[in-house]
Amino acid sequence: MAQDLLAQNQPIRRGMDDLVVDTTAISWVDGQHGRLFYRGYRVEDLGKNAGFEEIAYLLLCGSLPNQQQLTSFTWRLRQLSHTPEKIIRILQELPRHTAPLAALQTALAALGCTDPGPKYSEEETLLGLAMRIIAQTPIILAAIYRLNQGASILAAREDLSHAENFLYMLTGKVPSPQHTRAMEIALILQMDHGFNSSTFTARAVASTLTNMYAATSAAVGALSGPLHGGASEQVVEMLAEVEEWGDVDSYLNHLFARGGKIMGMGHRVYKQTDPRAVVFEGLLEELSRGEREAKDIKTLAYIAERARARFSERQQSIHVNVDFWSGAVYRRLGIQPVLFPAIFAAARIVGWCSHIIELRQNNRLYRPLSMYTGPVDLPFIPIKDRNK
Ligand code: ACO
Fold it and tell me: What residues make up the domain containing 218?
């Protein structure tokens, strides 16, 4: 086969750069113009005007809900907000400082073992499964976080919305309307993003016709890498490093000299500013109003400016991405950096489930080729004759 591929002069797309592997009607990342659409709507518009449940419905079901559909969807989501005691016990058994995404990956796989099994039609079952996983994810994450912080686990409250509950279960306080809206917008902005690594993973795993728990758990594994979902936490670490170096320019000189990367900058698809970063920056400003000295905002803005100047000198089109400002927003919501990458999962879980549902409507096993570059037809040497 390798010879065949070579003979056909087949290009190898390492990292699948610019490779189109399937169609989707869920989201479109227009990297050239810095735009992101969910089912045709600009993400900024959705963030400004809608709630978590409304946009989750849009992605899962294909169109915006009417009031009756939204009420019923929200009610069903709340009914599914009780995490099995067994899952909580598994989380309690994990080492206290297990990374939240590693714990979530474990919990989602375990949740699959507690699923009562199909009750409805294939379509109903898939949507029901998706809603169960979406409802459970913030509860599991909040439990992981509270264990990490040495605090007692809180159950979801029936009188709170999805975003309110998430913040309540994390911090132990019913959030203000401003904080609730900020969390809701943050979740909406990160719900879907074309065939990013974790979504591709979810689809590749789901294409074997395995269950939704296995596919979403694998997607969490993909998200946990620093090149994908881990950057928001590392941006906050970068702020601490800048402090140690004394100023931004010395820090950047050191970073560039050793070929390091600035976390929260760069993107495979965007050749313009990531539109989600713009909304996050605005959110941060709103949440920081009244703060006498928002030092982190000033430092981040200066890092972005100085880094952009250096990238321009090298003719590189590298801009801030969604993770650049998000950590500073979460800090203002009273959340510790250890959870930042996992908040991404609480949002992206909606996209992963939507993609699995979409794929199932016309499934095809994902099975790419590789070009083999090793030897062939080697004679087998018995162990007693090796390394002589
Ligand atoms: N800082 C410094 N240089 C960078 C950065 C950065 N953040 N991003 C890209 N570059 C440089 C690379 O060093 C490389 O330079 P070279 O051609 O001289 O070797 C060039 O730009 C291309 O970089 P790649 O890593 O090949 O670009 P790719 O499209 O594969 O990378 C990625 C995208 C992985 C996001 C990259 O920009 C990066 O590592 N950024 C930092 C991590 C980050 O913020 N991740 C979150 C991404 S958004 C998300 O997944 C939620």
Answer: 24-226+336-360
